[in-house]
Amino acid sequence: MTTSAHPLFAEALDGLGLELAVRAFPEGTRTAVDAAAAIGCELSQIVKSLIFAADGVPVLVLMDGASRVDVEAVRRELGAGKVTRADAALVRETTGYAIGGVPPFGHRTRTRVLADRRLLGHDVVWAAAGTPNTVFPMGPQELVEYAGATVADVRETDG
Fold first, then answer.
1. What is the C-alpha to C-alpha distance for residues 40 and 115, in angstroms, rounded to an integer?
2. What is the rounded CA–CA span in Å between residue 53 and residue 1?
3. For residues 22-44, average pLDDT
4. pLDDT per residue over 97-125, tens digit each?
5. What is the distance between the alpha carbons of residues 40 and 77, in angstroms, rounded to a whole number?
6. Residue 26 banded pLDDT, cuts 50, 70, 90
7. Which of 13, 23, 70, 156 has the most CB atoms at less than 10 Å from its CB?
8. Distances from the Cα of 154 to the Cαs of 4, 17, 71, 72, in angstroms?
């Protein structure tokens, strides 16, 4: 039962016939660092679900918690003229969730999704379940499939 997940996310899980082990952390999992500490996993096992606007059209980028999105790489991958970080209003309008609790799928609207390749380097990753204090584990390949994501190299590198 997904009673601690956000109602919109719980409804999406039911629609997909998915039962996930959603875990609630009263101290919060709003940031990747908070989530990794609460779960007791590596920071790179946390999935950040980040909304950007590519030429004004929302796009979801799934990034590991230890990395930052390379906006220029996202722009190239999408063939967009300009990519910017979405504000809180666009995030909520697009996904139905507030920043800090956006899950990788189960959104209000269908958006294009990019998943950074580095996520696939783990056996299990953890993502938000629609609230700033709930998360769920899932295999990264399965997560990419449910999110309808295209795997790409969109993280900042040191060089």
1. 23
2. 34
3. 88
4. 999 899 999 999 999 999 999 999 999 99
5. 33
6. confident
7. 13
8. 31, 31, 7, 8
Strand partners, 125: 138
In the numeric block, the tokens 């990034």 are attached to: 63
* CA dist 20 → 3, 50, 72, 92, 156 (Å): 10, 21, 34, 23, 31
- Residue 23 token pair: 């875990």
- pTM of the predicted structure, to 2 decimals: 0.93
Q: Which helix (DSSP H) or strand (DSSP E) does residue 92 occupy?
A: helix 88-95
pLDDT for 70 beyond 60: yes
Q: What distance in Å separates the CA atoms of residue 21 and residue 155, rounded to the nearest whole number?
A: 28
DSSP state of 55: T
Q: Are strands 46-54 and 83-85 parallel, antiparallel or unpaired?
A: antiparallel
